[in-house]
Amino acid sequence: RSRRGAIYDREGRELAVTVSSHSLFADPKILDDPKLVSRRLGRFLHLNRKSLLKQLRDKNRRFVWVRRYLSKEQKDKIAGWGIRGLGFIEEPKRIYPNNTLAAATLGFVGAEGQGLEGLEKYYEKYLRGKEVRVHLARDARGRPLIEGGDLYSQVPDGYSLQLSLDNQLQFILEQELDAAVAKFDADSAVGVILDAKNSDILAIGQSPSFDLNSARSYSLSVRRNRAIVDSFEPGSTMKTFVMAGVLKNGVAQPNTSIDCEGGYFIVNKRTIREADVHHDFGLLTVSEILSHSSNVGTAKLAFLLGESRLRNILSEFGFGSQTHVDFMGESSGLIQKGDWNKHLLANVSFGQGMRASPIQIAAAYAAIANGGVWRQPRLVQRIFSDELADAFSVKSKKEIPLAPRAERRVLSRDHAATLTLMLTNATSEMGTGENARIKGFPVAGKTGTAQKVDLKYGGYKANSYISSFAGFVPANDPRFVLYIAVDNPREKYYGAQVAAPVFSRLGAFAVRRWGIPPVLLSSEDIMKKRSFQVGIDLQELALNTIRTANQIELNGRVPDLKGLSLREVVRRLRGTDIKFRVRGSGLVVSSQPEVGAPLVPGNTIQIFLKETLDSEKGIKTQESMKGSAN
Does any domain span residue 594? Predict the structure, then answer.
C-alpha cells in the first residue's frame, strides 16, 4: 500500500498524517510450536489466545495477520524472540496529531487504510494513492523468502489536501462549544465560521466530539458532522430572509410602520404570539421588527410578501437544497411543497414549519455579508502532490484543479447593505442580539430561539429549544460569518442568552487572529463602505466624531443644515468636533438644539430628516425613531 496523502490546515499545519508502522503476520505452515507462540503473543499483545491458536494450527494457511500497527518497542521485542514463521510488514499507519480537532469533518480510515467517514472518504480517490501486489520468492519447501523478516514496498504517495480550516480558530470554536454545553447542561452544540468574502469554511465543529485515533469506539450519533448532515427548525434567524424578500420586492422599506397589535393576532383561528409575553408591541418599523424579533410583525410582512415570493427568496438563499459543500451526506433541509395556508406562511416567516442545516444558514448570511452574492461553501482549497518538497514553500509538482465554485446574486448590493444595517441595529442595546457585540467592532446578526419538534408525538416539546445566533463581523467590512446553535440548553434558553455570547467571544478571537484593527466609524464611513442609504439611526457607530479637514465655519453656534441630504450633512460637518445623531430620512427639516444655539462641547446634536418631494421616494418615515439599532 502506498503512503496516504496528508491533510493540512490553511497554513500547512498537519491534521492527518501517515507514519511508518510494522504489522505482524504468521505463516502457520512453518510454525514449530503454535501453542507456545499463541501463548507468548497472547500474553504480550493482549490477544485472545484460543482464537489465535486456532488460526496458527491451520497448516493450510500461509498468511495470518496477528496484529496490525505495532509500536516500535513491540516490534523489536517480538523480533528478538527469533521465532521461525513470524514476520513483519512495514505499512503506513494513519494518525491524527490533534486527536479530537475537527474530528467529524476529517473523518477516519479503516484497518486497510481506506477512508470510512468525513473528508477521508469524500476525497478517498486522491488521498489513497496506489496499491501494488507484491510477489514473493519461495524456497524449495515453499517458504516465503523475506529478507530480515520484513516485507516492504515503496510506491508513489497519494495526493494531499490543504483545507480552508484554520486550526487555531477551530480549536477555539470547539472549546467554546464544549463550554456552552457544560454551562447550560445542553445536549450538544454546533458552530460554523465562514470567510465572508468567498464562503470558505474557516472552522466547523460540534460538542461532544470524539478522538479520531480511536474513532470506532464512538457511536455514529457522536461521529456525524451535525453542521452539515443535520437540519432543524431554525427559529428567528429566518426573519432576516423575510426582510430580504421585503426589500427585494419593494413590499416595504426599513421605516415602514407595521401594527404589531399588542403582541398577538389571530390567523385561521390560531394565535400568533410574540416569543416573550411581555412584548406587547404596537407600531414598529420594519427595522424595529427585526431588532425586537417580533413574530407578529414578521408574519404580517410575510403576508404582504406572499407565499410565492417568500418561497422564492428562501430558495434563492439556498434553503431546501444542498449547498454542495465537499462532504458526504449533506442535508437539504426542508421547504414544504404544495400550497401554504396562512398559518404555515406565518410559521415559516419566523423559522418554524421548515428545516435548515447550520451550513445552509451560515452560507445564506454570508450572501448578505459579501454584498448579495451566495457562494458555495468549501472545505478544501488545494489537492496536490507534496513529494520530495515542502509544498507550502515550493510549487507542488502536481496539482488537481478544483471544480468551479457555484455562485449567484440573490440581492442587489444596496439591498444587502440596507439589510446589513438592519442587522447591525439588532445587536444594539435595544435589540435582541446585544450580547453578541464585540468591543471596537460593529456586529450584524440575529438571534434564534426555536422550540424543538416532538418527533414521537408530534407538535413541539415543552421546554426544549435550539438556541442560536447568526451574524458577521465587522459589519462595515465583513470578514467572518458565524453561526452558533446550542441544542436543548437548560435553565436559560433564549438565543440572546446562550448563543450570542459565544458568537461574541469567537468573533473577538477571529478579528484578533487576523490582525484586524478596531474601527471608529462615522455615518459617512458606513455609507461609503456599505452604501447605506436608509433612513434609520446609525447606532453608536454614527455618533463618533468625524475628524477630517474643516469644511464649515461654526463660530460656536449650531449650523443651519435645513434642506440638506444626510450625505451633504456629513460632508459639511467633516473635520468639526460635532457629535450628531440622525433621525428619519430624506432632507433635514430641523435640529435640536435649534439653529444658532450655542454649541456645548461634548453634547450631541439631534438632526431630523423627513421625506419630501425632492428627496428619495418610497420610504414612509416617522419623525423620530428609537435610536437603538441592532
Answer: yes
